[in-house]
From TrEMBL:
Lineage of producing organism: Eukaryota, Fungi, Dikarya, Basidiomycota, Ustilaginomycotina
One GO MF term: transferase activity
Protein name, per record: Glutathione s-transferase family protein
Family: Belongs to the GST superfamily.
Tagged with keyword Transferase: yes
Organism per entry: Malassezia pachydermatis
Domain of life, source organism: Eukaryota
Keywords noted in UniProt: Transferase
Record keyword Transferase present: yes
All copies of domain GST N-terminal, residue ranges: 4-92
Length: 233
C-alpha cells in the first residue's frame, strides 16, 4: 500500500487535486489515486456516493488519507497542503521558516482558495456547463460578474508578482518568497491549467504578462510537470 490515497475526479482530476499531487510529487511521497465520477451518487464510485461521503461529508475532491498516521483523513485542498507540509516538510523546503513567512504564505494561500479558485471555477462552469445544467443560455450578467472579478484577481497577482520579480529576479521570484511555497502549490491548480482553458474562460492572457511568465514557471515546476505527465496517460 502506498503512503497516501488521494481522491480525485475521473479524467483530468480537477484543479484542486492537481495541486495536492504536485506537492506529494515534490516531496517524493508515494500515493495511490482513487478516481471518482463527477456528479455521480453511485455508492462505490460517485463523488456524491455513500462510500465517499463517509470520509468527506462535503462530497468534493480532493481528500487525502495518510495510511502511516492511522489513516488520518483530511479534505479541502488548502488544509491538505498545510497538513503535508506540517508533517513531512521537515527541512522547510516549501514551508515558512519564521512566523512572518508562515503568515505571508497563509495570506496568499487563503487568497487563492477563497478569492481566486471560486471565481475562475464559476466562470469556467458558466461558459462550459451552464447550458446543459440549466437548459438555458447563460445570462450575460453572470459572465460579466465572474469575468470582472477574475480580471481583478489576475491584476492582484500581476501586481504582487511584478514586485517579486523586481525584488528577486525572474528566475528566483515566486508568489511569496524566493522559493516555491504552499501558496504557489495552491495556485498550481487553476493557474497551471490556464494556458489550456483560457479560450473557454474567455480570458485574454496577454493582459497579464508577468502572471503568464509565472504560470510557465508553475508548469515547469518538477512536481506539477510529473502530475501533468501522468494525466496524459
Amino acid at each position: 500500500m502506498a503512503h497516501f490515497t488521494l481522491y480525485v475526479l475521473k479524467g483530468l482530476w480537477g484543479p484542486n487535486p492537481i495541486k495536492v499531487a504536485a506537492l506529494l510529487e515534490s516531496l517524493n511521497l508515494d500515493y495511490d489515486v482513487k478516481a471518482l465520477e463527477f456528479g455521480s451518487s453511485d455508492k462505490a464510485t460517485g463523488v456524491k456516493g455513500e462510500d465517499y461521503l463517509a470520509i468527506c461529508v462535503n462530497g468534493r475532491t480532493p481528500t487525502l488519507i495518510d495510511h502511516k498516521r492511522n489513516d488520518f483523513t483530511v479534505w479541502e485542498s488548502g488544509a491538505i497542503l498545510e497538513y503535508i507540509l506540517d508533517v513531512y516538510d521537515t527541512e522547510h523546503k516549501f514551508s515558512g521558516k519564521t512566523p512572518e513567512e508562515k503568515a505571508l504564505i497563509s495570506q496568499w494561500l487563503f487568497f487563492q482558495v477563497t478569492g481566486h479558485s471560486p471565481v475562475q471555477g464559476n466562470l469556467y462552469f458558466s461558459n462550459v456547463y451552464w447550458k446543459n445544467a440549466y437548459q438555458e443560455e447563460v445570462p450575460p450578467t453572470v459572465i460579466k460578474r465572474f469575468s470582472t472579478e477574475l480580471d481583478r484577481v489576475y491584476k492582484v497577482y500581476e501586481k504582487q508578482l511584478s514586485a517579486q520579480f523586481a525584488k528577486y529576479g525572474e528566475d528566483k521570484a515566486w508568489l511569496v518568497l524566493d522559493r516555491p511555497t504552499a501558496a504557489d502549490f495552491s495556485a498550481m491548480g487553476w493557474l497551471g491549467l490556464l494556458p489550456d482553458i483560457k479560450d473557454k474562460l474567455g480570458v485574454n492572457t496577454e493582459q497579464y504578462p508577468v502572471l503568464m511568465k509565472y504560470v510557465e514557471k508553475l508548469r515547469a515546476q518538477e512536481g506539477l510537470a510529473k502530475v501533468f505527465a501522468k494525466l496524459q496517460h
